[in-house]
Design brief:
Radius of gyration: 24 Å
CATH topology of the largest domain: Rossmann fold
Distance between the termini: 53 Å
Bound molecules: iron/sulfur cluster
Largest sheet: 7 strands, mixed
Amino acid sequence: MSRVLTTCIYCGCGCGLYLVSDGKKLTGAYPSRNHPVSRGALCVKGWNSYEFSNDLNRLTSPLIKKDGKFILASWDEALELVVKKFKHYKDTFGSDSLAFLSSAKTTNEENFLMMKLARAVFKTNNIDHCARLCHASTIAGLSLAFGSGAMTNSINEFEDAEVILVTGSDTTAQHPLIGSRIINAVKDKGAKLIVIDPRRIQLADMAAIYAQPRCGTDVAWINGLIYVIIEENLYDRKFIEERTEGFSELKKVVEDYTPEFVEKITAIPKEKIIEAARLYAKARKSMIVYSMGITQHTTGVDNVASLANLAMVTGHIGFESTGVNPLRGQNNVQGSCDAGALPDVYSGYQKVTDENVKMKFEQAWNVEDLPSKIGLTVTEIISAAGDGKIKGLYIMGENPVISDPDSNHVRKCLSKVEFLVVQDIFLTDTAEYADVILPGAGFAEKDGTFTNTERRVERIRKVISPPGQAKADWEILCEIAGRTGYKGMDYKHPSEIMDEMASLTPVYGGINYDKLEPYGIQWPCPTKDHPGTPILHKEKFTKGKGTFTPRTYIQPAESTDDEYNFVLTTGRIYWHWHTRTMTNRTSTLERESPEPYVEMNYEDAQNLQIRDDQLIKVSSRRGSIILKVKAGNIVPKGTLFIPFHYREAAANILTILAVDPVAKIPEYKVCAVKVERI
Ligand code: SF4
């Protein structure tokens, strides 16, 4: 048996684990004792992360759809067809008739290559990936405030915080190893926890203050906290004067957000607003932790910018155990953004509209005319495919039929696109619409790097070979580029791709595979001798001075009415991951949570005469699903929660395609639904 150190495929914690294999199959996984995140522990997904790789339903050969059926094809046939079709659309309808969806499950190197393929070979900026659906608001909101859209501090710093404000993050379920750091901080070191979340999450039980706001009212309660902090003179005058700009504008906007006014909007008792403001502001080391409960709103950028205001007004940023800490969802969603799989930036967030940046990439890639028009986002790409504007769509490792809002709309659009390529490890719901399916490799079958939520760039290592004829995703992308006649994507190993990415990406400038041994390094790492950066914005913000960006409360896109009288919010659970293509092939995880359900408050269940475990129909203006009820006190009266993992009752059939105007992130966290007994 061999054992190889690698990085977990599931969440953004980025735990280090050993995969065990007999040379052909994976037979187990166990944690690295010395890895700074895992420290000898994994959550249940990590322990079982080896199992899905051996599943007999893996895609093992390219497939081409003929007369509505998938037929086995050779790599030659499949790749020639992809290149022929994409070249034809480019020549006939222009480069922007093509679009590419990259993947937060694949490596940094593969995301870098996907954006190189889109930009250098097919000359379009129509490239995006699922970060649009989870943390696009973080990138936009924190960039406005600080100049950098990443987690400001490090995972291990939670244990030394005096106060931790957790909002919009079911941390123990979705980032379990970070959840355990927070529990350690409270239980072992006496940290005080403030939890503000519409769901009564596990951490609420150990919180000093727990408040349950109405869904979609975050700007109001954050402004309320800032109001109290200013009113009671708890703000950090020196920090504000020396390191920030725009305080007087903030002061003016928040002066309306008295605790009484905030209580009316949010349903948080005014006493709790005052108590939380005092607790957060008075501590020396206060950390903010948030996730998609904050970002997945039509006001996602406003929510994030408001949290940044809160940290700056108290000076709780730029020091150990402070900061604004977005927990990135997928294993490599941070890295996919860093690598430039976004429609407006190259790797390292260098703008496609900047002429000097464009020239740098043209020179390095030996091409002319890189596109400078900002491309389409995920949801825009899907809609444009439905409108016939996108003729050729390439989806690598994503499953928008289950993960994107308004699934029926997504299905309609994908059925209309002229030519769809799906590259994946399983036949997903999205792959069923494909014209060509290319079998990719799982995380244990290739080399590369992931970047976790604390900006730690770390290695994944090849343990076994991909099944059948499947290939590493980077190899497939290189073959496609080569078949178009482009000579600049001929790599022998992913380390060469990282070397190229580092040479073009200042924050990765000093990174190479040797430097990443054994447990990775946190960017910015601009030079070869740089030790990496655990804490951002120490002496000054990335953009110089931090900017207060005051925001007023705006209602969610869809409100309840007499017919659609429940608020629906969606999210993840501990046992499953994303669209469940891997976790439903993992026996322990599937056994613990095998079917879809909806959380409902006891009182609502009683009023509607619905028993626990009874099947009900939940409908929005976009569709209906049938699933079992879990009655309890996790959600407040009038609110429902449905995990979005289950294709059998896909929550995204119900969600609304309303997006934040800046980040274009959909409002997964609020829509109006009705409930019927069946
Ligand atoms: Fe994997 Fe996240 Fe669990 Fe760690 S906490 S083992 S990275 S799923």
